[in-house]
Amino acid sequence: MKIGANYLGNNQCEFTVWAPTLNQVAVQIAHPDKRLLPMQKTAAGYWQTTAADIPPGTLYTYQLEAKGDRPDPASKYQPQGVHGPSQVIDESAFTWKDTDWQGVPLPEMVIYELHAGTFTQAGTFEAIIPQLKQLKELGINAIEIMPVAQFPGERNWGYDGVYPYAVQNSYGGPEGFKKLIDACHQQGFSVILDVVFNHLGPEGNYLREFGPYFTSKYGSIWGDPLNFDDAYSDEVRNYFIENALYWFRDYHIDALRLDAIQAIFEVGARPFLQQLADETAELSQQLGRQLYLIAESDLNDVRVLRPKELGGFGLDAQWCDDFHHALHALLTGENDRYYQDFGKCEHLEKAFRESFVYSGQYAPHRKRKHGSCAQEQPAHQFVVFSQTHDQIGNRILGDRLSQIVDFEALKLAAGTVLISPYIPFLFMGEEYGESAPFFYFVSHSDENLIEAIRKDKQQEFKIFEGRGEFQDPQSPDTFQKCKLNWEKQTEGKHKILWEWHQHLIQLRRTVPALKKLDKNSLEVSSIESEKILFLRRWTDDSQIFCILNFNKKQVTFNAALPQGNWQKILDSAEPKWMGAGSTLPEKITSEPELTVKPQSFAVYEV
Questions:
Q1: DSSP bridge pairs for 602
Q2: Nearest alpha-carbon partner for 132 in 168, 193, 98, 182
């Protein structure tokens, strides 16, 4: 069932809203004229009417039980914010230029996450377009955009959205978003949109007044969970499945990143995510191009990725947090929060080999056994990274790796991610060592809510006591501090780091052993006492051997290289990369004693 205001052309519009328990619903036209349009109740609790003299740009609300006006839960645009009227838009008015676009295959993606409000000084969709050229030169081919569903005010991470179908007005609305997506496709970028199907934000959330969108059956840190399995849940599912199809169909989105699916609570024979995967596959077939669903989940549950025939949800890929945690703990030595479960080379070894580090064993931080084995799942089903919006923003200083570790460690981090057999992911600015923080920020209008968020964040950050000053999420200054400093990428070490990332991505695309994403064509080992790790990958006649030294000291070891004439193709310690000078030979033909520089990364090819 299509919901919302569907413009039919010739100034005709069909309005559909779900309100199964109400006795009277009408469309209140607010502009350009004022009139009330009665609606008729249909099966499954939908109210509908088709009206004339409704041009695109018409502002409207729904009148419930002959009193009060509320925006459309499936509003396509909220030009006056979350409390204002909804606007009718003509989806066919935009002229797309990407008619031949087929998208980037998932295994070939190099993903770049950005926040539309802080990526540029202007903070709009259209301001992103001029930067695409540099990202293309870097080697990026997939842009992941943090949530754009309408949220309160002008600044927010996006996870407080309350109108899942409406593109944020302060970023440029539907028109600006379509221009960005079209430009991305013309330049060879797939577009991944971050969507939130596990909760809706508090301010401007009027869904309860329309129907049973929520359930009290389960507890949640974000309020009552959405109703995916209780009475009336069929139409709540429809609301979110139609939303996913809307982004794919009307905005030409290539993939959706599903936020925190562990917070989608339900008990039923057909999980919501499985249904979503089925509907997406059907639309993909209709459109003639591959559409993808990428999950964020901290459950380490292979059912997320397994096909429906094997009892899984059938999603295409998921973020691999364990890879990040293992890498971060080795680089920084941090052992608070979930990092206490990591910190050894053996953890990163297992992440390379199996994806999930915790595959059923006891996790000290969780104080229970955690996860399932993902060894049989294909490598292209996992997205790996050294930084994300969460891993930076959920720190009191919002500090990136560039503020925590030194330059050599930044090169090592990039090498670890980009040499892996998984889909690599960068967070905006990471490629040149951006120093600007990425704090948590909001711009609510409810003072009680603002104060509650302040207290909640202060409580969350108590673990960082003594490490820095708390930043007020509501302050415009907090937001402004997060803007990227693009001029840095042409200066000194920032420029070298950018070129390092570019070179690694190029190797990944041109060396067959790196290009093929396969966990079965991989060997990994380590010397725990020396914090040094070895990785070999191969395919057909191509073979590479990597040395990753996480030790802050120079390490000498006896190399156990496979047979062959190994030629060095990359070494972070070389002066070219502003290193102190390499101690590794250009060629290795036997198994000599080798010495590697602190926190260095080297690749040999045979």
A1: 547, 571
A2: 182
* 130 phi and psi angles, rounded to 5 deg: -60, -20
Closest CA to 195 of 120, 255, 118: 255
> If you ran DSSP here, which 8-state letter would residue 168 be given?
P
What is the H or E stretch that residue 34 is in? none
Cβ neighbors of 21 (< 8 A, separation 6 or more) are: 45, 211, 212
Task: Give the three-state DSSP class for 346.
Answer: helix
Q: Identify the CA nearest to 292 among candidates 398, 383, 388, 413.
A: 383
Find all residues with CB under 8 Å of 271, minimum gap 6, and list them. 313
Residues 6+ apart with CB under 8 A from 432: 488, 489, 494, 495, 497, 498, 501
Contact 182, 169 (CB under 8 A): no
Q: For residue range 541-554, list pLDDT tens digits in order.
A: 999 999 999 999 99
Taking each helix axis as running N to C, give the angle between helix 321-332 and helix 407-418, from 0 to 180 degrees, rounded to the nearest 10: 160
pTM to 2 decimals?
A: 0.97
Residues carrying an active site annotation? 259, 296
The pLDDT tens digits of the residues spanning 520-572 come to 999 999 999 999 999 999 999 999 999 999 999 999 998 777 788 899 999 99
Query: Checking DSSP bridges between strand 382-384 and strand 317-319, what pairing results, if any?
Result: parallel
Cα 21-22-28 angle, rounded to 5 deg:
145
User: Which residues make Cβ contacts (< 8 Å) with residue 346, sequence separation at least 6?
Assistant: 526, 528
In sequence order, the 6+-apart residues with CB closer than 8 A to the CB of 202 are 160, 223, 446, 449
* Tokens, residue 387: 């930084």
For 586, what's the count of Cα atoms within 13 Å in the CB-facing half-sphere? 0
Residues of the chain predicted below pLDDT 70:
220-222
Give CA torsion, residues 419, 425, 431, 434, to 10 deg. -140
- Strands 59-64 and 46-51, sheet pairing: unpaired
CA-based diameter of the chain, in Å?
A: 85
Q: What are the DSSP calls for 514-550, one per residue?
A: HHS--SSSEEEEEEGGGTEEEEEEEETTEEEEEEEE-
Q: What is the DSSP string of 128-164?
A: HGGGHHHHHHHT--EEEE---EE-SSS---STT-SEE
Cβ(326)–Cβ(334) under 8 Å? Answer: no
What is the rounded distance in angstroms from the CA atom of residue 222 to the CA atom of residue 544? 46
Q: Which residues contact 481 (CB under 8 A, 6 or more apart)?
A: 436, 437, 439, 471
Tokens of 515: 């290009």
